[in-house]
Design a protein that fits this description.
The chain is α/β, with parallel strands linked by helices. It contains nine helices and ten strands. The structure holds adenine.
Amino acid sequence: MSWNATVLTLFPGMFPGPLGTSLAGRAMDRGLWSLEARDIREAATDRHRTVDDTPFGGGAGMVLRPDVVDAAIAAAVPEGDQRPLVFLTPRGVPLRQSLVRQLAAGPGVVALCGRYEGVDQRVVEARGMIEVSIGDYVLSGGELGAMVLLDACVRLIPGVMGAAESAEEESFSSNLLEYPHYTRPAEWRGLRVPEVLLSGHHAEVARWRRERSEAVTRERRPDLLTHSPNQDQGRAGAPLYPADSPA
Ligand code: ADE
């Protein structure tokens, strides 16, 4: 059974884009996951294929209509589909590795990409969407966010990465940024690789890496030291896939 992604967007031509190359593209070719990009506009019913309208209460921009978005979801998602519906929006909860892991362990994802000012909140709530942001900046639409989310999920699908790379994933669970990496030559432009890495002393290397990880985390991301990324993801902190549900 493969992992299936459906993306609802006004710009289906943006997909697969970068997801068709490299690790994700090879995994797709091998049938480990699939991606279907569907045009929200196909769910419009009027002659002009209108998908949006002006915001109630006034203000700039346009809002995607709830009836059109709902019809787009109904057309794309078969009855009984267990995949969570994720709406990419700067208003969402920040995307973290804990949510990525939960999504990757499930049957796939349906991703809704907003454009314009946003999506009518009624359909967001009626469909139980998980609102997710990929960072504290505003993109021109959710498409790049959906690609980020899918890339992060796909690399965790069993069989996508080799065993050596899979083990690396553990390093993020420790809540620390990674230690710096070095390779040959041992001296470059007069700059030497830290001696301990050349020592062959595994325990010393491990201690040095741990210490570098903690230092860079303290400096760049002190929030990671006090905040568990395994909290506050999913709806109201609930796991996406409770232990007794098929994941
Ligand atoms: N759409 C626009 N900005 C976004 C962001 N930061 N994350 C997810 N979707 C978005």
